[in-house]
Design brief:
87% helix; 333 residues; mainly alpha
């Protein structure tokens, strides 16, 4: 009886701390479950943010094409002005003005090129403002949403989820603006004007060759290349002018219009490539800034989840050991 009482006393003495340990293990198990649920919500939050970033990029690329089309429209309008200019200028009734290369170049710059560079610059600046505003709104929205989640762990996060958007618009403006302006500036107004004027003058020389038999090549070439005004009655007759307009100038007019459109299309392609490249770079940098900004929170969630998984395994092992000891104590009765 005394032996049984001693054994019982030993069992009770050992069972008490094992019971306390078992309750503590269960307490921490419950705590881990709560923490894992919280971190599960955090993982969903981070996944949601990543989905938002992916959708944001899709939306931005779509909207970028819309805004970039405004630049295209400026160049298309320039091409239309070029068509009208040559239709109105390259006419046999305007032959006196055509031999004045300086005036022709000046008219081309004024009427066709005009303020194209300034209009493109304004459209690019508008695109930059749109990009900066969208980037800022996306950044702020995600940061505010994420900081609400991060507030649950504010005392444990190492590093700060940034709350202010530090972004130098002037640097962005200069960067995108330089690329766009470089392409626009590559369209040498003076060189292109001179080239077109030479094309027109060559057309007139070809005109003279066509009519050389009737008019005398030497007289007409001198009149075209050295004179600002033609003595129509003394050098070239009305019937000859009609023939010139019918056979040569229409052909040259069509070819020059085609060349201008090809040059403008090339300019548009170069400008589009420069803007798209800059846009993609800024879009990628914006995504990287957001990911870097949320990195402390993301890192915390990942590390805490790993710690909880490790702790759960340890608690499971401890609970198993406590259970084994309790089973052995019960067998002592």
């Amino acid at each position: 009886m005394e032996t049984l009482d001693a054994t019982e006393r030993l069992r009770l003495k050992l069972a008490n701390p094992l019971g306390v340990a078992a309750r503590l293990v269960q307490k921490y198990r419950d705590l881990i479950v709560g923490r894992e649920q919280l971190l599960g919500d955090d993982y969903q939050t981070l996944d949601s943010i990543e989905e938002q970033l992916q959708e944001y990029q899709v939306d931005m690329r779509r909207d970028f094409r819309y805004h970039a089309s405004h630049v295209d429209n400026v160049l298309y309008e320039m091409a239309e002005r070029g068509d009208r200019f040559f239709d109105e200028t390259l006419r046999v009734t305007n032959i006196v003005a055509l031999v004045n290369g300086d005036k022709l170049r000046a008219d081309f710059e004024r009427v066709v090129v005009g303020d194209t560079s300034r209009h493109i610059e304004r459209q690019v600046n508008d695109l930059i403002d749109w990009l900066v505003d969208k980037d800022y709104q996306q950044w702020r929205g995600i940061m505010e949403f994420l900081n609400q989640r991060a507030a649950h762990h504010a005392d444990r996060i190492i590093g700060k989820v940034q709350s202010d958007f530090e972004f130098n618009r002037q640097n962005l403006l200069a960067s995108i603006g330089r690329n766009a302006q470089r392409v626009v500036d590559s369209y040498d107004r003076e060189a292109e004007s001179l080239k077109l004027a030479q094309e027109v003058q060559r057309a007139l020389i070809q005109t003279a060759a066509v009519e050389a038999g009737a008019l005398g090549l030497g007289a007409l070439l001198v009149a075209i290349l050295q004179t600002t005004l033609l003595d129509v009655t003394g050098v070239i007759g009305a019937s000859a002018l009609a023939a010139v307009g019918l056979y040569v100038l229409p052909y040259r007019r069509t070819k020059i219009k085609q060349q201008l459109r090809e040059q403008i299309n090339q300019l548009r392609a170069q400008l589009s490539e420069a803007m798209t490249s800059q846009f993609e770079g800024e879009l990628g940098d914006g995504m990287q800034r957001i990911r870097e900004a949320i990195a402390p929170y993301s890192r915390f969630v990942r590390i805490e989840r790993e710690k909880l998984e490790k702790l759960r395994v340890e608690l499971d092992n401890t609970a198993s050991q406590i259970g084994d000891m309790q089973h052995k104590l019960n067998q002592m009765v």
